[in-house]
């Protein structure tokens, strides 16, 4: 009898909880400012709405389709009929990224993914915590600091060139098929190690390097092609449940993420200890971690990073600073292999500049004076942005300004859109970067020459580089954007100066894997991680 009474009491409590939760959910749904009158695609199901198409497709597929069908502001469905907005409108983007400051926060369930992969660092933080963390981090990423890293980047680039030359020397026909994605990932890991931590990872020399093995394939393995169940869990379940699963789940994905986190934590901790000791003995170093340790020591104690935050920043730099640069370069090199005329023109500019150097190394200002190099990079990062979407949520009721009026499903024409607190937004960097009003009628075509068109700036200011959103914008602009540009220029100049890159048959199976960054994988071999098979041969000299 006692057991029956307890069961009955528990069942009553659970039912009461469910009823209250449902009532609250419906109250929020129907009292919030509605965006249901904005045109958008039919949901696939009531439970998951349009989310399977959003998260399971290859990069850009839903973005370009919805943009073409419905324009720059699209209503999509989240779970259980919830309305969300899919945005690529330039004026709305400017408002969200810049004008509103911290008025749009990250989706809590997405920041949980950041926490698992990188800890409570910059990519996880929001609002006041983000502002405090960013202030301590900024001194390491100024223009002079990043320019001074160029010799380090060139060293990693030369090491890669040397290894490719060795492979070519032992090949039968002076050409080899290489997984360029794996090579670039290791090269950027080495240059990040030296510039950011004054530490030699040795990833280029040793493919079996423990940390590199853990990072390689991390994103595609943990985030690529999520099942419907994973989408449901990640979007519907509360954050405490996600946290619990991150700690206890024994799925392959979670085990990989936890193993990488432990490894990165150990390495980060020993590096921080080394730097703190060096600072104590008055040793000055110019790597980012040393600057960070120094900036943190001189901050007002209330504004300092905690030990846990310091570790998280290092893990953030390890992931955000290596995978993004190598991925951007990978897609750039793919475009160069598809457009041999662009590749040759770039090589001509590199060699003309090299002749003027009289045997000295390239410097940051040499790169700054190579207009075609800049055009190729801008165009590649416009056309193939490594980070293709951002996810934000309105922190309070607000009104989005629009670049051009839209017609609602009730036939009304509006030039601004009121949205309620908590409305979730998908900001499509990929679709914005192909906006025809901003980048020209041929925005869907790869063409570096667009950057020489003598036209005045079009569209509102949104991004730090070519007005692209590839590095995001406003208070959350990529902190490493200058670092990335000099690093990519160094690698690209060395590679194109020495080698010719061409497509292979394998590219027919190329996928644009959506896993926070856009990774190249091969159909049927996604689990093996990033792969861009290209034919590499020596670039002849006259
Ligand atoms: C071409 C290469 C890169 C691209 C395309 C890129 C892109 C981005 C984007 C889109 C964001 C905003 C993400 C968000 O708010 O959710 C971001 C943030 C960030 N990036 Fe990069 N990034 C690149 C290279 C780097 C490098 C080399 C570093 C460091 C060495 C770096 C460190 C960071 C950090 C720490 C943040 C967080 C900034 C904040 O929230 O305040 N990134 N990056």
TrEMBL record:
InterPro entries: Cyt_P450, Cyt_P450_E_grp-I, Cyt_P450_sf, Cytochrome_P450_monoxygenase
The protein's name: Cytochrome P450
Main localisation: membrane
Family: Belongs to the cytochrome P450 family.
Listed cofactors: heme
Keywords attached to this entry: Heme, Iron, Membrane, Metal-binding, Monooxygenase, Oxidoreductase, Transmembrane, Transmembrane helix
Classification of source organism: Eukaryota, Fungi, Dikarya, Basidiomycota, Agaricomycotina
Coiled coil: none
Naturally occurring in which organism (per UniProt): Lentinula lateritia
Subcellular localization: Membrane
Pathway: Secondary metabolite biosynthesis; terpenoid biosynthesis
């Amino acid at each position: 009898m006692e057991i029956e009474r307890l069961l009955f009491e528990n069942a009553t409590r659970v039912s009461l909880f469910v009823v209250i939760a449902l009532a609250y959910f419906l109250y929020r749904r129907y009292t919030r400012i509605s965006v249901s009158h904005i045109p958008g695609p039919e949901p696939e199901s009531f439970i998951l709405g349009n989310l399977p198409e959003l998260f399971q497709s290859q990069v850009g597929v839903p973005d370009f389709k919805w943009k073409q069908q419905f324009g720059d502001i699209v209503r999509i469905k989240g779970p259980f009929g919830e309305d969300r907005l899919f945005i690529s409108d330039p004026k709305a983007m400017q408002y969200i990224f810049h004008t509103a400051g911290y008025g749009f926060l990250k989706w809590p369930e997405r920041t949980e993914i950041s926490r698992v992969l990188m800890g409570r660092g910059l990519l996880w933080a929001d609002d006041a915590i983000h502002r405090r963390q960013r202030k301590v981090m900024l001194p390491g990423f100024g223009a002079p600091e990043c320019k001074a890293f160029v010799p380090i980047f060139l060293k990693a680039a030369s090491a890669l060139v040397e290894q490719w030359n060795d492979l070519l020397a032992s090949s039968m026909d002076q050409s080899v098929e290489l997984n360029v994605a794996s090579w670039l990932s290791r090269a950027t890991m080495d240059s990040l190690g030296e510039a950011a931590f004054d530490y030699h990872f040795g990833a280029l020399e040793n493919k079996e390097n423990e940390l590199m093995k853990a990072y390689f394939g991390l994103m595609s393995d943990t985030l690529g092609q999520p099942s419907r169940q994973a989408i449901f869990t990640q979007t519907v379940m509360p954050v405490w449940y996600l946290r619990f699963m991150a700690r206890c789940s024994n799925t392959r994905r979670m085990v990989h993420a936890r193993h990488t986190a432990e490894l990165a934590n150990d390495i980060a901790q020993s590096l921080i200890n080394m730097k703190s000791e060096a600072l104590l003995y008055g040793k000055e170093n110019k790597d980012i971690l040393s600057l960070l340790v120094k900036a943190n020591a001189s901050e007002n104690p209330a504004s300092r990073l905690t030990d846990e935050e310091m570790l998280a920043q290092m893990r953030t730099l390890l992931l955000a600073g290596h995978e993004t640069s190598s991925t951007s370069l990978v897609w750039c090199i793919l475009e160069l292999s598809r457009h041999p005329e662009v590749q040759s023109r770039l090589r001509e500019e590199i060699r003309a500049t090299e002749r003027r150097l009289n045997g000295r190394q390239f410097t940051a200002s040499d790169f700054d004076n190579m207009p075609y190099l800049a055009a190729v990079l801008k165009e590649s990062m416009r056309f193939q942005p490594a980070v293709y979407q951002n996810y934000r949520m309105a922190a309070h009721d607000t009104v989005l300004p629009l670049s051009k009026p839209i017609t609602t499903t009730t036939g009304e024409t509006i030039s601004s859109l009121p949205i309620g607190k908590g409305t979730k937004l998908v900001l499509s960097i990929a679709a914005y970067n192909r906006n025809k009003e901003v980048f020209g009628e041929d925005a869907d075509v790869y063409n570096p020459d667009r950057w020489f068109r003598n036209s005045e700036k079009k569209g509102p200011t949104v991004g730090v580089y070519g007005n692209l959103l590839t590095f995001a914008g406003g208070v959350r602009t990529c902190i490493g954007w200058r670092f990335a540009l000099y690093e990519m220029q160094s690698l690209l100049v060395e590679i194109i100066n020495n080698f010719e890159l061409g497509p292979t048959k394998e590219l027919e199976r190329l996928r644009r894997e959506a896993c926070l960054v856009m990774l190249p994988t091969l159909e049927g071999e996604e689990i093996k991680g990033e792969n861009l098979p290209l034919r590499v041969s020596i670039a002849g000299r006259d």
